[in-house]
Design a protein that fits this description.
Order of helices and strands: EEEHEEHHEEEEHHEHEHEHEHEHEHH
Cofactor: Zn(2+)
Strand order of the largest sheet: 12-11-10-13-14-15
GO biological process, one term: formaldehyde catabolic process
Family: Belongs to the zinc-containing alcohol dehydrogenase family. Class-III subfamily.
Protein name: S-(hydroxymethyl)glutathione dehydrogenase
Number of domains: 2
EC number: 1.1.1.284
Low-confidence stretches: none
Structural class: alpha/beta
Helix content: 25-40%
Shape: globular
Bound molecules: nicotinamide-adenine-dinucleotide, ligand AHE, zinc ion
CATH topology of the largest domain: Quinone Oxidoreductase, Chain A, domain 1
Strand content: 15-25%
């Protein structure tokens, strides 16, 4: 198939707010510094639903969504040296070029090299590799994993050992890495510190895993769904609080009381801006840090009294957990193989590509992790 257009199935989002439609699409061969991947597994993430809803300011249609995928390199364009034919890979929505100002800063995992075109839904040369019904389809987050074949930039992919099923490695493409990295890399949780995690979905449960690895002494999970207590404890949380069941107290008051003045680290894994405020205000005066991970709907803004920051609390956030995909993802896979990182436990539902709308419904229903 090398050098030829492939016809395959993909889930196409023609219009915001409409179900995805399974279509025969054409996937053009990779151009210079591009890689064509046969996708074997993909996760479905809330961010896909967010963009599909039409609320993502960067969302445009028609588009092939999906950003949590793993597969096998089918062909490579000129100049590709990072991966080879047959490599098992994970697609990276946060690329890593190792040459741009961001990559060289040593301060962030955000890579600037192709961010502008990625946000517009096209490949770095400004064009699309997808066509259906005579129309070009847009790419999503530089990955578009809801297709049997996709094309990505060579800096948006990392080769992974053949020894782990791609059903598992795909989840390292977003949810697990995001939460785990937020605790380990972005916050740098220290041994003995106290942590509160707001929202125990895939991201929040992964924050718990990271906090456990760092030796946190207390890990309090806050979730409105009581079923998440069992999930949280399974991942190592020490306490669970349902904010609807604390009487007249606010959740920040409750947490400050539970921790003698507030948490060392808090994490928003809900995308709700009121929760983000509570997470910041639950931090300990003088040093507590709150990390925003959730993606809030377009137009939403966060607020708090500036005094909260004047008195030493720190508000920050991260994408993809602050993890550099090409450099660090193989280490996470190694941790998984050595039994130090849970991945299997996150998989609660499985569907074939043509049932993808069902997968979206399941994701929204509440008893689904991934
Ligand atoms: P999820 O829906 O599986 O989990 C969210 C959890 O939050 C649920 O258990 C829900 O019951 C709980 N919740 C909802 N409202 C709450 C409230 N008011 N107080 C406490 N808990 C509440 O979602 P997920 O897949 O874990 O993703 C979480 C968020 O992170 C989403 O907004 C997603 O878009 C975002 N995300 C961001 C990044 C990033 O790189 N920054 C990566 C992946 C996902
Ligand atoms: N496109 C949206 C923002 C969406 C967003 O925040 N995306 C995260 C990843 S969420 C994964 O589930 C991200 O990586 N952000 C950094 C970046 O460069 O996109 C908007 O508001 O425009
Ligand atoms: Zn995601």
């Amino acid at each position: 198939t090398e050098g030829k257009t492939i016809t395959c199935k993909a889930a196409v989002a023609w219009e915001p707010g409409e179900p995805l439609s399974i279509e025969k699409i054409e996937v053009a061969p990779p151009r210079a510094h591009e890689v064509r991947i046969r996708i074997h597994y993909t996760g479905v993430c809330h961010t896909d639903a967010y963009t599909l809803s039409g609320k993502d300011p960067e969302g445009a249609f028609p588009i092939v969504l999906g950003h949590e995928g793993a597969g096998i390199v089918e062909s490579i364009g000129e100049g590709v040296t990072s991966v080879r034919l047959g490599d098992h890979v994970v697609a990276l929505y946060t690329p890593e070029c190792r040459e741009c100002k961001f990559c060289k800063s040593g301060k962030t995992n955000l890579c600037g090299k192709i961010r502008a075109t990625q946000g517009k839904g096209v490949m770095p040369d400004g064009t699309s590799r997808f066509r259906a019904k005579g129309k070009d389809l847009l790419h999503f987050m530089g990955t578009s994993t809801f297709s049997q074949y996709t094309v990505v930039a060579d800096i948006s992919v990392v080769a992974i050992t053949y020894d782990v099923s791609m059903e598992k490695t795909c989840l390292l493409g977003c949810g697990i890495t995001t939460g785990y990295g937020a605790a380990v890399v972005t916050a740098g949780v220290e041994k003995g510190s106290t942590v509160a995690v707001f929202g125990a979905g895939c991201v929040g449960l992964s924050v718990i895993q990271g906090a456990v690895k760092c030796g946190a002494s207390q890990i309090i999970v806050v979730d409105v769904n009581d079923k998440k207590e069992e999930w949280s404890k399974k991942f190592g949380a020490t306490h669970f609080v349902n904010p609807y069941k604390i009487g007249d107290q606010t959740i920040q008051e409750k947490l400050i009381e539970m921790t003698d003045g507030g948490l060392d680290y808090t994490f928003d894994c809900t995308g709700n801006v009121q929760v983000m405020r509570a997470a910041l205000e639950a931090c300990h005066k003088g040093w507590g840090q709150s990390i925003v991970i959730g993606v809030a709907a377009a137009g939403q803004e966060i607020s708090t009294r500036p005094f909260q920051l004047v008195t030493g609390r720190v508000w920050k956030g991260c994408a993809f957990g602050g993890i550099k995909g090409r450099t660090q993802l193989p280490d996470l896979v190694k941790d998984y193989m050595e039994g130090k990182l849970k991945v299997d436990e996150f998989i609660t539902h499985r569907e074939p590509l043509d049932q993808i709308n069902k997968a979206f419904d399941q994701m929204k229903a509440g008893d689904c992790i991934r």
